[in-house]
Amino acid sequence: MNRLAMLTAGVTLTAGVLSGSAGAGAAESTADVLSVDFARSTGEFRGGATGTLYGFGDDGAPTQALIDGAHITNTSQKAPYGTQHPSGDAIKVEDGFFHKHGKDMYIYVQDYYPDWSYHGGVRPGDSRTYDQADGTYTSTPNGIWDYLEVVEFVTEAVATTSSRPQDYVFIPFNEPDGGNWYADWGRLKDTFLADWKATYDTIQQVYARHGLGHARIGGPGDTRWQPERSAEILTYAKANDVLPDVFIWHELGIDNLRTFRSHYADYRALEKRLGLTPIHVNITEWGMLRDMGTPGQLVQWLSIMEDLKIDGQTAYWAYAGNLSDNSARANAANAGWWMFKWYGDLEGSRTVAVTPPAPDTVDTLQGIAAVDKRNRRATVLYGGGGKPVSLRLSGLDRDIFGKRVDIEVREITLSGAEGVSGAPAVVKVLDGVRLDRGTIDLGVPTYDRYAAYQVLITPEQDRTPVAGAVWSASVEAEATGLTAATVYDQDPQGGGGWKFLASGSRDVGSFNRPASRADWTVTVPRTGHYRFQVIGGAPGVPGRHALFTDGASPVTVQYTADLALTDVQRWQYRGSSEVTIPLTAGTHTLSLRASLNGTTVLPNSDITLDKFLLTDVTDGEPTAYPASTLRYYGGAHVVYDREKARGHGEIRGAGERADAYVHAWETGYHDVSLDYRSDRRTDVDVTVNGRPFATLSAARPGAWRSTVRLHLSQGINEIEIRSKRGILLQQLTTTRVAPADSAAVTIEAENTVRHGTVAVTTHADATGSNASGGKSIGYVGPGAGNTFEIPRQPGFDRPGAYDIVVGYANAELSGRHDYNPQVIDRRLEVTEDGGGSAYGYFRYTYAWNSFLEKTIPITLTTAGGSLTFGNTRAYAPDVDRITIAPAVLGQPVTVSRR
Fold it and tell me: What residues contact residue 865 under an 8 Å CB cut-off, 6+ apart?
């Protein structure tokens, strides 16, 4: 039985009062019990636990869809003029951050310095004179403490160049108890306290002279909870009127899952003892490598911070711009991103009491639960346990949920830091369950300790919930038939948490011989096409395997490179590769091999294998996003009191909208369909990734399905739905229409018109490169002369909205750091001769012969103006190929659903 079938078959539910139930005791003996009391509110949803440290690289890295979907409310970034890292400047990323959900932009002022620890770990003196206009300096003392000058020009830059200076929080010192200037507290305590006051006063003086009022300041920012230091700092700060607006320390390590709450309790007790009004807390670095991208780990941390109603930011262990390893590729979700998204979906809710089986215990079942009265939905997010789980749900208010409820259970499983995770699968539905005194006992056999689960409870809907709408199966690589390969145990607590986790705590390596193979026998339900996905790690270089079906018909499985700059990342920083294969109904053996001929290995085939997944894509993998799962703004909400429209989202009038975050496995055309009802003639406006794409319409009252064929980017696409006349939206559905991709035009980069220094690079087959045709172009930019040009041709010879999809490589690094790869996000500019222009920032791809893709949206205004690509200020990424696609094909179609 495949995993999806196991989950679907194994879910049981008993409606009724649990006390005295014969079945409850038996379930508890074999399962972890998570109790949720929806009648006990614990306060408004805070939503600040998924903040990031250097989660933002440059404008568009990560993409706006990833940022908005992840619902990031706070981040810490580099101070203006900072040199600690080459990207992550707060001013440069603030527009994307504040676009929808961003509230608090923190900056590490000491990140002005290029080295770690800062300034060689030694407090600077007065050996420089700084130019306050641009942060440059001369090696001349001027009677002013050098760092105080840094604080002043950083604050001045925020005050004068930010569009939201009131939403910044200045962190003058980062980990001052570590190797950063003040570790010897006995000797340097008085120095730190005086420096705290001096920096605090300087920041306030800058804001005052610009009429900005009080500037928020956070600190002290210690490496861990330091009760003695904290007491002395707060005592001094109170006496000198320099109290921080946000109290900061870090929670890094495995055992912090056990001690976190006690640290917080100690801090609040300290405040009370000192007679202080409670100060907001932000844990500006939390978690270890093992936690990032792993839903079952993340939910343990999030549950603590949401319970305490504090903010927190994922630690910065890898590189800037990927939400701390909680996104994949240029625009895709990994499993961690979906955990962030689920957490952000609780906006507007009130959290309720959750009792885990073992609170304040490392690596155990934990959860978050909330009730959204406006949209009449209750949510439970849980994960982290290794046993089957029994949810004991009580306190469901019949005034909100009625006499019967629908329940949907979704699952997200570990996909690796760079591995793509599709829309979470619905693994169980319960339709029209009767509420008896508001209590439900729900059992879900959760054997995957790294997965997380979302339980969504709503009043009974007119829509019939469906589990497993698209067939899928999976298997751990170590559970396949292995030849010439080795299974390695991956202890989730090994190395002090300084490692990335493997699904099932094991993976397959030493897959580097001609005989190396992994055989999976699987039964598929029908004849058609199936996506085979491998989750594994290609350390630092692209590589290849061959996939045989029943010993024949081999296809190449092409891997892009994964991060491998240190031994910690090598082999463990896992990505994914996907191929589509035809299968007939019945049982097949899928054999992944390191060799095509059994004699020689394929290029860079020494790739770790973690997990295989197989999904039926015959019908375009239709994926539904029900109204009950969308986000609503401006008064739009889900209704349950309308005939034939229970569980529909009402969107009516200016300012109201629903947001959906839809996943595309491939860049290309998809039919986006809206099922809705209307009580009059109506229009529906659809915006995709910030661009108004289509207006759908219904000519009269009724039930309708409107469909528009849109070009979506691989990964996450943000779709906004508005209707001035009003609709009752049942669901949005996306369906891949691969044959329509013929409307797009692809040009190999080596076939473009090259100017200046632009040159063609040939990638030998032995390198394992995924360059199309084995060639790419480089040395694009800097300057106006080093460009490449694409003349207009049929397919994009009309004005209109287009997507320019760039296959690119970017492995540029700048400077060094003890553990952070110092990545550069390269910029590519597109100019239409006689028309407009557009640009995009392109994130790190780990190797110059490993190509990802990113989309630049553009509106062309001429029919014949050539497109010129370059970068006037620096090098652009290397380019493999360019695809230009109309954003919309044809006209929307509306049909009656009667």
Answer: 792, 832, 833, 834, 835
Residues 883, 743: Cα–Cα separation, whole Å: 10
- The answer to which of 39-43, 52-56, 114-118, 669-673 has the lowest mean pLDDT is 114-118
Token pair recorded at residue 743: 């409307």
**How many structural domains are present in the chain?**
5
Domain-located, residue 337: no
Tokens 């695809």 -> residue? 883
Tokens at residue 571, please? 């082999």
Q: Are 542 and 577 in contact (CB under 8 A)?
A: no
Name 144's Cβ contacts closer than 8 Å, sequence gap at least 6. Answer: 126
Are 654 and 793 in a shared domain? no
> Final residue of a domain: which of 616, 635, 655?
616
94 is catalytic: no
Q: What is the pLDDT of residues 694-717, one digit of tens each?
A: 999 999 999 999 999 999 999 999
CB environment 123-152: b (16+ within 10 A), e (fewer): bbeeebbbeeeebebeeeeeeebbbbbbbb
* pLDDT tens per residue across span 514-543: 999 999 999 999 999 999 999 999 999 999
Q: Please check whether residues 272 and 139 belong to one and the same domain.
A: yes
pLDDT band at 18 (very low <50, low <70, confident <90, very high): very low
C-alpha gyration radius of the chain: 28
Q: Does the pTM of the predicted model rise above 0.85?
A: yes
> Which residue is catalytic, options 175, 478, 832, 853?
175
Query: CATH no. for residue 731?
Result: 2.60.120.260
Please tell me the distance from the alpha carbon of residue 172 to that of residue 531, in angstroms, as a whole number. 50
CA dist 140 and 138 (Å) reads 5
Q: Is it the case that residue 461 has pLDDT exceeding 50?
A: yes
3-class secondary structure, 167: helix
d(C-alpha 600, C-alpha 849), whole Å: 22
* Residue-wise DSSP of 593-618: ESBSSSSSBPTT---EEEEEEEEE-T
* Helices 146-161, 90-98: crossing angle, 10 deg rounding: 40
- Closest by Cα among 880, 852, 884 to 777: 880
CATH number reported for the structural domain that contains residue 260 in this entry: 3.20.20.80
Q: Where are the beta strands (DSSP E) in 252-310?
A: 280-286
504 and 548 belong to one structural domain: yes
- Cβ-based burial of 268 (10 A; exposed 0-12, middle 13-18, buried ≥19): middle
- Does the annotation mark 175 as catalytic? yes
- Residue identified by tokens 């346990």 is 385
Q: Give the active site residue among 152, 285, 478, 748.
A: 285
Q: For the residues of 182-201, what is the DSSP string, one character each?
A: ---HHHHHHHHHHHHHHHHH
Q: Cα separation of 885 and 409, whole Å?
A: 37
Integer Cα distance of 77 and 535 in angstroms: 31
Q: How far apart are CA 879 and CA 852, in angstroms?
A: 10
Contacts of 455 (CB under 8 A, 6+ apart): 379, 380, 381, 382, 391, 407, 408, 409, 442
Q: Are residues 750 and 880 in the same domain?
A: yes
Q: Which of 317, 327, 283 is nearest to 301 (CA)?
A: 283
Q: Distance between CA atoms of 511 and 518, rounded to whole angstroms? A: 9
Q: Are residues 735 and 748 in the same domain?
A: no
Last residue of a domain, one of 739, 756, 789: 739
CA-nearest of 247, 399, 878, 821 to 569 is 821
Q: Which residues pair with 404 in a beta bridge?
A: 434
Residues 647 and 463: beta-carbon distance below 8 Å = yes
Q: Confirm whether 665 is domain-assigned.
A: yes
Per the structure, the complete domain to which residue 723 belongs is given by 623-739
- For residue 552, what is the enclosing H or E element? strand 552-559
Q: Alpha carbon of 240 to those of 194, 204, 244: distances in Å?
A: 10, 14, 11
